[in-house]
Write the structure tokens for this entry.
Amino acid sequence: MRPAARNVRATGAICAVLALSLSGCLQDGESTNDGQGASSPLAVLASAKNEEGAKASVVYPTPGPIGEFLERAFRYRPFLDVGDGGRYLHIPYDELVDINKRDEVPVRKVRSYWVRKLPKGAETEGAYSAGGRTLAYRAVGALQGGSKFTVIYVHGKGGNKDWGFDDERFGGNFNRLKNLVLKSGGAYVSPDFTDFEGDGFADIKALVAKYRPLTSGRLVVACGSLGNMHCWQIARDPQTARQVDGLIVLAGFPDERFLTTAVARGKAGWIPLVIGHGSWDPDYDYKPTLELYRSIRAKAPNYPVRYLLFETGKHGAPVRMIDWRDTLNWIAAN
């Protein structure tokens, strides 16, 4: 793990301009930008000292097609480290702040400040077919065609389609994702699937095939925990890999076979890859995923891969803390 840097600062910006997290900058009762109008620059230059002690910077949040929504609540606090031209971000996390202060009931129910209910009727439930099986999903956005981007979330062990739609678990971060999608003309789908092996991958493959022709822009698959299995399978499956424009693997494990895929070798279109992990994850240690990131960088320095390390974060930290807007805009830019 890269050592935390001291004297982290944002260039030419104070806390209000940087629009940092609610817990880091705002007091109870302060409003956040709800996306109806920008109260701060679209992007600012965030800086940190890298492991060699040199100043490193990255434009954050990444500008792109995804518009603002609750920016000041969900943006990262000043980075502990920025490396590889902004591909590596070492991000502060504090359980006392990011769970205990943020949640009304720790882990289970976020405070209402972090949630904006969607318009009545915006969320829907549907079904899709795979291998003779009929499976359910929850969805929101432009589902019938013309989606400017589509996100499919693959839950982890013990989960179901409701996990990726829960407004109050995971610090309200899925509620923000749903709002970002709805406001920016995208589509978001959280499905049930059979298992984390062959049948389950066939399910996800069928869902990708269903929404690829309905999406005019990027189609991104995000996988949490054991769901990472299906993201790695996507990269190994030539047909599905051609239909996917971005992969996000959170709180999971590496698959070294990724390095041998046509995607990684450049014989097929590169798929932007974002890896997020907590440095104190007791279920899957962060070091193997960081090593995979470094291996990709060594083999293909221009490959669009990014690593988000949440300092002291445990297993749920990446899902709770990832800045969906910045991440999806980074994928769109690559």
Remarks:
- Residues 51 and 146 are 44 Å apart (CA to CA).
- DSSP finds twelve helices and 15 strands in the chain.
- The chain has a mean pLDDT of 87.
- The longest strand covers residues 215-224.
